[in-house]
């Protein structure tokens, strides 16, 4: 069992930055692929980024590539999403996710994710 708690969301102007954090608990959480998804109002939840348990495999959605950076600190049981050059279209609820998968890319295409956080709101004003 893995429990996930996100923090760091908020309101920022376009072009600004935010860093989201996801604190994980559970006996074997550091073996899980960790990722971030987001859901904008009226839209389906979409994949943003994922990182393997070692950090050696990282995968991004095309829409955030070059602007967002995912990282993890297994000693602190935390995964981060650094978001730079934010755009109004990045406005969404951001969810942390975890699952046992073969790679970070697998999370981007998986139809089912085992564990979710409660979400944190990110609002980017124009």
Supply the number of helical segments: 1
Describe the global form.
globular
User: Which structural category do the helix and sheet elements fall into?
Assistant: mainly beta
Percentage beta strand: over 45%
* Through-space gap between termini: 40 Å
Low-confidence sequence ranges: none
Helix content: under 10%
Computed over alpha carbons, the radius of gyration is: 13 Å
The biggest beta sheet reads: 7 strands, mixed
Keywords:
126 residues, mainly beta, seven-stranded mixed β-sheet, 1 helix, 11 strands
Please provide a written account of the structure.
The strands form two sheets. Strands 2, 4, 5, 6, 9, 10 and 11 form a seven-stranded mixed beta sheet that branches. The protein starts with a strand and ends with a strand. Helix content is 5%, strand content 48%. With 126 residues, the chain is mainly beta.
